[in-house]
Amino acid sequence: MDNNFFKNLEKKTGVNMKDILELANSLQGANFQDEKTVRNVIKRVSKIANKPINSELENKIVDSIAKDGKQLDFNTISNMLNNKK
Fold it and tell me: Does the reported pTM lie above 0.70?
């Protein structure tokens, strides 16, 4: 991808693209039905996005992904983080 694209994205979001790419690589082949794996991913995304979450929201996300079988992607987690109350 174009290096300027990543630089512009980093400026707009404040998120380091290296962190995103490392996270994306670590997700390949991960077992998202494993609660521990899902919790680790949620914590990493929360840290990268600089959006702390409480245990109630973390549990809701884990239930949604690991137990209900929802697909794990950045939009799913981002929507849950943005809709936290």
Answer: no
Reading the block at residue 76, the tokens are: 């799913």
Secondary structure (DSSP) of 7-74: HHHHHHH---HHHHHHHHHHHTT--TTSHHHHHHHHHHHHHHHT----HHHHHHHHIIIIIT-PPP-H
pLDDT confidence of residue 61: 86
Q: Is 50 left (phi over 0), alpha (psi -120 to 50) or beta?
A: left
| Pair of tokens at residue 64 | 């949604």
pLDDT at 2: 65
Which residues neighbour 14 within 8 Å (Cβ) at sequence distance 6 or greater?
50
C-beta separation of 14 from 50 below 8 A? yes
